[in-house]
Amino acid sequence: MADRLKDKVVLVTGAARNLGAVFARKIAGEGAHVFLADILADQLEQTTADVAARYGKASAIPLDVTQEDSWIAAMRTVEDKAGRLDVLVNNAGLFASARIQDQPLDEWERCFAVNARGTFLGCKHAHPLLKKSGGGAIVNISSSWGLTGRANFGAYSAAKAAVRMLTKSAAADFAEDRIRVNSIHPGVHETDLSRDFLADPQQREFLLGKVPLDRAGDPEELANAVIFFASDETPYMTGAELAVDGGYTAI
């Protein structure tokens, strides 16, 4: 299928590279006008140009997800250019690795600012335009480590757990406006950021040793889950969480 998001307007944060870029390409390939948002200006322009060349409808929006004014400006741009918003994919995230007893406070707060505050601001400021457009969907990218604890990743796990519960609260708050809000909880996937770790046998064992399917995920597989929640195929799903983790959280 190539039209599951036909004529929808979709905003993807953290879309300049890695998983966000894969999501943007997949969404555009399903017929949507996709807005790619990121703080990485040069990479954002390059990725947007690639998506536009392949699929036609793609626009770049500079966005710092931690700043409320930046979100307000981004929503204004979407409305001015497209006149509506049907789907928000809150994908922008920040990875942090440290034991709690060793973690600097500023690193903890930065992790929460990007992962939790950024998702909150996205939900808050997308809501009016989604409502005006007749409803729609928000897809929040959490993590399998937001469902389980993990040594050395306290800030990241806590921030992604916050995304999980924010999703459920937003689902309740937005239901009357026909806006569905669901979360996806990825396990380890093959990206530019993870490739070097996965190439190291010791790191690979740490990351995948407890994954029943015994492999990292393909980003395209994760993108399929995003399409599932973004499309009209899930009209009765809101406040749900979907683990795409090779079975990691099943054991």
CATH superfamily label: NAD(P)-binding Rossmann-like Domain
Shape: globular
Which range does the strand content fall in?
Answer: 15-25%
Terminal Cα span: 33 Å
Element pattern in H and E: EHEHEHEHEHEHHHE
Overall domain count: 1
Average pLDDT taken over every residue: 96
Query: What's the total helix number?
Result: 8
Estimated helix fraction: 40-55%
Largest sheet report: 7 strands, parallel
Radius of gyration computed on alpha carbons: 17 Å
**In CATH, what is the class?**
Alpha Beta
Give a brief rundown of this model.
It contains 8 helices and 7 strands; from the N terminus they run βαβαβαβαβαβαααβ.
Q: How would you characterize this protein structure?
A:
The chain is of the alpha/beta class and 251 residues long. It has a single domain, classed as 3-Layer(aba) Sandwich (Rossmann fold). The chain has 8 helices and 7 strands, in the order βαβαβαβαβαβαααβ. It has a 7-stranded parallel β-sheet with strand order 3-2-1-4-5-6-7, with helices on both faces. The longest helix is centred in the middle third of the chain and has 28 residues. The protein is globular. The relative contact order is 0.14.
Features:
251 residues; alpha/beta; Rossmann fold; 7-stranded parallel sheet; 8 helices
